[in-house]
């Protein structure tokens, strides 16, 4: 990564076995205009400081593992150009907000995975049909109904952007709730009732105050804020229907 | 099992000042509380009205004092900020999908403004003796 220009990377470091708490370390990084923040971090690791620890894999916005706070905003570092990120000659890189740091820029995803599992992100059938009868078929418009939410790559940028989750980590959170909508809208799924029992709660959809930042930072245009408002509308409609027409079909 | 020591990483207080969308969120929240306060001020009109003409006139005179006029102007600003930031969000995160395809946010935002203006004109017409 030999380049004409150089910039300071200010990286938040933390070693769990060390005696001191988190601290910032500056690195001088040469760069070209077509290089991204992840390239800069890899330059540091390869050329300057092999102890720097961070996650990445695909380098193309697919695996969702390279999310970090870049100058205070949650970003996929493989999709953020250094030339755009350098503010006042400094690129500050922190772990994603609201997640504890295990080491340097590596965060503990467990709280997210717990919330994710909570919404039952799989197809629920009342009764499975035998495999011999073939797959469950869908029309293209059935896929369109949930495609947007299915594009989520679990990068957790939306959690880092959410002040509600920062204030209360019991909040189920944007990506998990968007995933609940993805399965509720799937014509093959019959688990809407079970999911609403789990998400139409104080720490589920009703804790969202519609800040909207989750949808702004989402690199896949999943629009979790829109998904949560849709779920609020659906939950209310279901509740009213149960009250007014208790014998009507559940869906 | 080895216990892993983790570093807690949260935004510092004042986090919302660094991002204009967080600022607009805070304005919206403050606008919500202030519109509740304005509701109480309006309720005062009803209460004093029930107490007779002079109590009502005194309350109106109180609302016209400079301090109360400034307070109402501040509330108006926050309520407008509340409404506009909501309309912007509704346009951005659309619940209403027509045939699975959301209309452009500008159209939803524009529609909201039109409805808002029409409702305001309707209320002004009623309040200022149109009916
Ligand atoms: S909803 Fe968007 S920001 Fe959130 S985890 Fe999924 S892809 Fe990432
Ligand atoms: S490295 Fe896979 S999304 Fe960035």
* Topology, number of strands of chain B: 0
Write down the CATH class of chain B: Mainly Alpha
Largest sheet report of chain B? none
CATH topology of the largest domain in chain A: Fumarate Reductase Iron-sulfur Protein, Chain B, domain 2
Task: State the gist of this model.
The complex is a heterodimer of chains A (251) and B (131). Chain A has 251 residues and is an alpha+beta fold.
Question: Would you give an account of this structure?
Answer:
The complex is a heterodimer of chains A (251) and B (131). Chain A has helices spanning 37-48, 82-85, 110-118, 140-150, 157-161, 163-167, 174-184, 192-199, 213-217, 224-244; strands at 5-13, 23-31, 67-70, 73-76, 90-94, 101-103, 106-107. By secondary structure, chain A is an alpha+beta fold. Chain A folds into two domains: 5-107, Roll (Ubiquitin-like (UB roll)), CATH 3.10.20.30; 110-244, Fumarate Reductase Iron-sulfur Protein, Chain B, domain 2, CATH 1.10.1060.10. Chain A has a five-stranded mixed β-sheet with strand order 2-1-5-3-4. In chain A, strands 6-7 form a two-stranded antiparallel ribbon. With 131 residues, chain B is mainly alpha-helical. Chain B has a single domain, classed as Fumarate reductase/succinate dehydrogenase, transmembrane subunit (3 helical TM bundles of succinate and fumarate reductases), CATH 1.20.1300.10. In chain B, helix 1 packs antiparallel against helix 2 (53-63), helix 1 (20-50) crosses helix 3 and helix 3 runs antiparallel to helix 4. The radius of gyration of chain B is 22 Å and the shape is flat. Chain A binds chain B through residues 12, 14, 16-17, 21-22, 72-73, 94-102, 107-108, 141, 144-145, 163, 166, 209-213, 215-216, 223, 225-226, 229-230, 233, and chain B through 4-11, 15-16, 18-19, 21-22, 25, 29, 89, 92-95, 100. Bound molecules: iron/sulfur cluster and FE2/S2 (inorganic) cluster.
């Amino acid at each position: 990564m030999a380049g004409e220009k150089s910039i300071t990377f200010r990286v938040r470091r933390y070693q769990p076995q060390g005696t001191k708490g988190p601290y910032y370390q500056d690195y001088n990084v040469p760069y070209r205009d077509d290089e991204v923040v992840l390239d800069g971090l890899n330059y540091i690791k390869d050329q300057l400081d092999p102890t720097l620890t961070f996650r990445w894999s695909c380098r193309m916005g697919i695996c969702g593992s390279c999310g970090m706070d870049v100058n205070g905003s949650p970003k996929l570092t493989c999709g953020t150009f250094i030339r755009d990120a350098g503010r006042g000659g400094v690129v500050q890189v922190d772990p994603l907000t609201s997640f504890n740091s295990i080491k340097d820029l590596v965060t503990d995803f467990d709280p997210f995975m717990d919330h994710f599992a909570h919404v039952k992100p799989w197809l629920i059938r009342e009764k499975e049909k035998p495999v011999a009868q073939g797959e469950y078929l869908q029309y293209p418009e059935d896929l369109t109904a949930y495609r947007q939410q299915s594009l989520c790559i679990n990068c957790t940028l939306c959690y880092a952007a959410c002040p509600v989750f920062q204030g209360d980590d019991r909040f189920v959170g944007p990506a998990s709730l968007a995933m609940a909508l993805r399965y509720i809208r799937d014509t093959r799924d019959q688990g809407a009732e079970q999911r609403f029992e789990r998400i139409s709660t104080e720490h589920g959809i009703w804790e969202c105050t519609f800040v909207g930042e989750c949808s702004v930072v989402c690199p896949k245009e999943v629009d979790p804020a829109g998904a949560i408002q849709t779920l609020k509308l659906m939950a209310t409609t279901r509740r009213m229907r149960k009250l007014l027409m208790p014998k009507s079909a559940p869906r | 099992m080895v216990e892993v020591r983790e570093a807690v990483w949260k935004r510092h207080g004042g986090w919302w000042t660094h991002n204009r969308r967080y600022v607009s969120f805070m304005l919206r929240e403050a606008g919500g509380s202030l519109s509740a306060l304005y509701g109480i001020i309006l309720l005062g009109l009803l209460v004093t009205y029930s107490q007779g003409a002079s109590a009502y006139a005194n309350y109106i005179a109180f609302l016209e004092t400079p301090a109360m006029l400034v307070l109402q102007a501040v509330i108006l600003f926050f309520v407008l900020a509340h409404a506009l930031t909501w309309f912007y969000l509704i346009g951005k995160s659309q619940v209403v999908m027509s045939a699975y395809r959301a209309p452009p946010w500008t159209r939803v935002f524009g529609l909201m403004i039109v409805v808002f203006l029409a409702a305001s004109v309707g209320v002004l017409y009623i309040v200022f003796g149109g009916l």
